[in-house]
Automatic annotation (TrEMBL), chains A, B:
Gene3D superfamilies: Erythroid Transcription Factor GATA-1, subunit A. InterPro entries: HNF4-like_DBD, NHR-like_dom_sf, Nuclear_hormone_rcpt_NR2, Znf_hrmn_rcpt, Znf_NHR/GATA. This is Nuclear receptor domain-containing protein. The lineage of its organism: Eukaryota, Metazoa, Ecdysozoa, Nematoda, Chromadorea. PROSITE patterns: NUCLEAR_REC_DBD_1, NUCLEAR_REC_DBD_2. It is found in: Nucleus. Residues 171-181 have a biased composition (Polar residues).
Amino acid sequence: MANITIPMPVLFPEPSISINGSESDSDGRSESVTPKLTLPFTENEIEPQPSSLYSNQPAQLKKPLLKCSVCGDRATGVHYQTPSCNGCKTFFRRAVIAQRKFVCRNGGKCALDKHGRCGCRACRFQKCVDAGMNVNAIQHSPSVNLTLSIARKRVFRHQHQKGYESESADESQPSTSESNGISPMIFGEHDELFKTINIVLRIDEKHTRLRLSTWNPYFEQDGLVNFLSSDSAYGNATRYPLVSQWPARPNHYVEKRLMKAEEIKFWYFCDLALSVEYLKTFEFYSQLHMADKVSLFCLDFGKTNDFKTIACL
Amino acid sequence: MANITIPMPVLFPEPSISINGSESDSDGRSESVTPKLTLPFTENEIEPQPSSLYSNQPAQLKKPLLKCSVCGDRATGVHYQTPSCNGCKTFFRRAVIAQRKFVCRNGGKCALDKHGRCGCRACRFQKCVDAGMNVNAIQHSPSVNLTLSIARKRVFRHQHQKGYESESADESQPSTSESNGISPMIFGEHDELFKTINIVLRIDEKHTRLRLSTWNPYFEQDGLVNFLSSDSAYGNATRYPLVSQWPARPNHYVEKRLMKAEEIKFWYFCDLALSVEYLKTFEFYSQLHMADKVSLFCLDFGKTNDFKTIACL
DNA sequence: CCCGAGAACATGTTCTGTT
DNA sequence: CAACAGAACATGTTCTCGG
Ligand SMILES: [Zn+2]
Ligand SMILES: [Zn+2]
Ligand SMILES: [Zn+2]
Ligand SMILES: [Zn+2]
């Protein structure tokens, strides 16, 4: 085995689960489960009122009507201490966080208006800086002021929002409220473990979400060659609408070839794939030799099940 | 321990590593390592010639000048058997793959032009269908015609493209060309394992890429509460430009507060974080009780190192 | 070298949460 | 309740690759 340095959980940005049923509309949808997920839990997603969702509504504003100091577009407020539009705001943050350094090939004299702002990122970024955007306003660590109490609140909230499991009927589990309760006794002020636990909780949600969604890895078979090379499916977890009940009802949009199979979820493959998705993110793997990797891989799965048989290594 | 169903690797879409040094420009950048990565390996990224990169160049075309059958925008070709623009093409594919079902709140009579096409996804999708887009043209499994020889070719290519390791100086390993060689003897036509190995290869690349990039988890600490809830950093692996050598040289864009720390990479935390990233994607985790999760978590890290000491569970 | 499918990449919008 | 930072979500563009 090559040398493996095992990391310790480090902390990260913020997720935020969208689980409040306060959507703009209240159409009388009475499907089977009817959970309280905002996004697409029901089979059908009612389009929001126009004036949102990328539509081209002018959207009258009563505000001072600021202009973006960078591109001149309508500003959505003061971002990083500079009046700016959403685009420039996000562009600036991303560039800084990724520490990107663009180089203009026109000597930094590119025009920047609402439509040409994407023409040269070097000039756009420079103009962001010149316009007064302050790098220090970017919260690289959003938790600088995240107190333990706040963290606990979040966990508490998560516990009471996971009401959409509706599958493994073990919600009769009485210990949930306690065993899940991130006991302060155990973790105390030691944020480390406390945070770790919450990570696990979050993973839970991500996983559950994806597992109960329309995501059906069976249809994405492309050889293991590519399987692990693609981005983790967890990244798109929220992209796939949840299905209240499997097998899903036929999709009137879908034609024959897909209908017959897409109505069912291949749980075996699904769970299989999800498991692999997990592996995708490990680190020390890259330092292993091929033989070690294979061994480790087989070991990982063989440890729990009969994958070893398949791998026969 | 709760019941755990261990999945088996399933296959996925396609990644494609952009590792050809055929960028439009050939500026004489002579940094230390100078790998052959297309994207941002060098510290600075020269902006491409205008007329690309989201700029608003008309980009003269000599083609028949098709129009998108859905939104009327300029079509980029015939997609899914229907002349369409890139937007509608991608929109259609995504909707189908995710099996989304939009519902119009205007009875399906929304106008659809180039600018209003995002106003109602239900109508947009319906128009895609009406325009003739064929669901069957979507390659849910891109590998339907992926032969073993092709797969081998890919692997071969990968092997010869990993020239940017430049860190763990074990390239003196003579067995690489053979032990990495995905011996057909072992896997034969059994795509399964064959693919699996390639997944591992891919993970390698993802990991290496992220590890050598500007990605510095130290700055993203936000408590474990949120750590695992965020999308896997692997998903954005290519977003962070590679750094040829750590510590990185100061970024003239970055101001003081960030400069002092961002110039150095905290390898310990980095590796730690990457390891956790890996965990993020596992599946059966969601079915475990809290205590089990904690135990498993500690076990995972304790298995390799002294994390158990920290967790003290 | 063209085509077209899709991954990767880049952007922009909306939602959530904290102050 | 407004502001605003950032995550999540949605969309559009460019690159890769096999036919
Ligand atoms: Zn702007
Ligand atoms: Zn420029
Ligand atoms: Zn179109
Ligand atoms: Zn409509």
